TrEMBL record:
It catalyses: Exolytic cleavage of the (1->4)-beta-glycosidic linkage between N-acetylmuramic acid (MurNAc) and N-acetylglucosamine (GlcNAc) residues in peptidoglycan, from either the reducing or the non-reducing ends of the peptidoglycan chains, with concomitant formation of a 1,6-anhydrobond in the MurNAc residue. It comes from Rhizobium ruizarguesonis. Gene3D superfamilies: Barwin-like endoglucanases (2.40.240.50), RlpA-like domain (2.40.40.10). Residues 106-263 form the Lytic transglycosylase MltA domain. The keyword Lyase applies. The keyword Lyase applies. This is peptidoglycan lytic exotransglycosylase. It comes from the Bacteria.
């Protein structure tokens, strides 16, 4: 385990003592695992996080799942029991893990701007460059993965306020226009959306890049300003506050300097989830965004949130999931974002998830020996 992982330990446990495991049905994961295997073997392996687990470590499990059709929930669990060992991620500060949730919004859009459709989704600009230790200016923090190359000089890219005030206008970067600046902002937070055009066509956009500035949660800002009680914070509460205070919307949104650029994502199957960072379609209720600096895409995690009950008809959330996405707010070894699906109902489910949870990572047998 590398230095980056020194604030937590992996504690070997058994499936027998994993509360909720025997009630779960992970059968739906097998198709997604096949997609992950194709991505790793035919395109390129996922980047290895600081925990040190690689795509190579994952392949024996994915190979076992390739031609496996579970005949029952028990047989689905059995494949994981045979090929993996569970490890509880235990933070050294004693705090439990924490989950939130995300979804794919449905947004009404127009191909052309007018008095109603005024707020654009932008493609990646050509003066936005990837930064690394070789080309990052000394004045920019290491957290900046993107910057602006202009007249041979690299600097921070203009932030949300500058872009909202017209920095990118006239460059032909608009994918489509929405009716609401707040809707556009929350698509930036979610990282993807289904676009419903006026002629009935359905499009999809997904994350392409960002301006590079750190993400700042506007919910935290509204709590600190005393506008929303900490116990009441949710996406719904934030949206309601913004609707009640239209004259203060810009001030609050511009507090988050981060700005997201998108690319068109073909809609091969409207029923399939969006394709996110792991380059495979997300499966509602079974896909997890994790900190990719620590974890590696494709690995299974069993998430147990005793206080998270509204996703499973009043029962505690106890599900096997695959790490398939990431996000700038998802930081830490036991921090995850649950994908709840597409559309308004999925948004209602996602918006109120803020719960403590245990994170158990399933490590294929050959690699598991390194963590004993």
């Amino acid at each position: 385990m590398s230095d980056h992982a020194s604030d937590f330990v992996l504690q070997a446990i058994s499936f027998d003592t994993l509360e909720g495991w025997k009630d779960d049905d992970p059968s739906g994961l097998f198709e997604v695992m096949r997609s992950c295997r194709r991505q790793i073997t035919d395109v390129k392996p996922y980047r290895t996080g600081s925990l040190g687990l690689s795509s190579e470590d994952l392949l024996p499990l994915l190979a076992a799942a390739e031609d496996f059709t579970p005949s029952s929930p028990a047989s689905a669990r059995g494949l994981f029991e045979t090929h993996c060992r569970p490890f509880l991620i235990r933070r050294k500060d004693g705090n439990s893990g924490f989950v939130t949730a995300f979804y794919e919004p449905d947004i009404d859009v127009s191909e052309r701007p007018d008095e109603i459709f005024r707020f654009p989704f932008y493609r990646r600009p050509d003066d936005l460059i990837d930064l690394d230790d070789a080309n990052r200016p000394a004045e920019l923090d290491k957290a900046y993965a993107f910057g602006r190359l202009h007249d041979g000089r690299v600097a921070a890219y203009p932030d949300r306020r500058a872009i909202d005030q017209g920095f990118l206008e006239g460059r032909g970067l608009e994918i489509a226009w929405a009716k609401s600046k707040v809707d556009v902002f929350f698509v930036h937070v979610q990282g993807a959306a289904r676009l419903r055009y006026e002629d009935g066509r359905i499009g999809r956009i997904t994350y392409a890049a960002k301006a590079g500035h750190p993400f700042s949660a506007i919910g935290k800002l509204l709590i600190e300003r005393g506008e929303i009680d900490r116990a009441e914070i949710s996406m719904q509460a934030i949206r309601a506050w913004l609707a009640r205070n239209p004259e203060r919307v810009d001030d609050v949104l511009w507090h988050n300097h981060s700005y997201i650029f998108f690319r068109d994502a073909p809609v091969a199957d409207p029923k399939a989830g969006p394709i996110a960072a792991a380059k495979v379609p997300l499966l509602a209720g079974r896909s997890l965004a994790v900190d990719r600096m620590i974890h590696t895409f494709g690995f299974p995690f069993f998430i147990r949130g005793e206080s998270l009950t509204h996703l499973d008809q009043g029962r505690p959330f106890r599900r096997l999931m695959l790490a398939l996405d990431t996000g700038s707010a998802i930081v830490g070894p036991a921090r995850g974002d649950i994908f709840t699906g597409s559309g308004d109902m999925a948004g209602e489910r996602a918006g109120t998830v803020r719960n403590d949870a245990d994170f158990v990572i399933l490590i294929p047998n050959a690699a598991a020996g390194r963590f004993d």
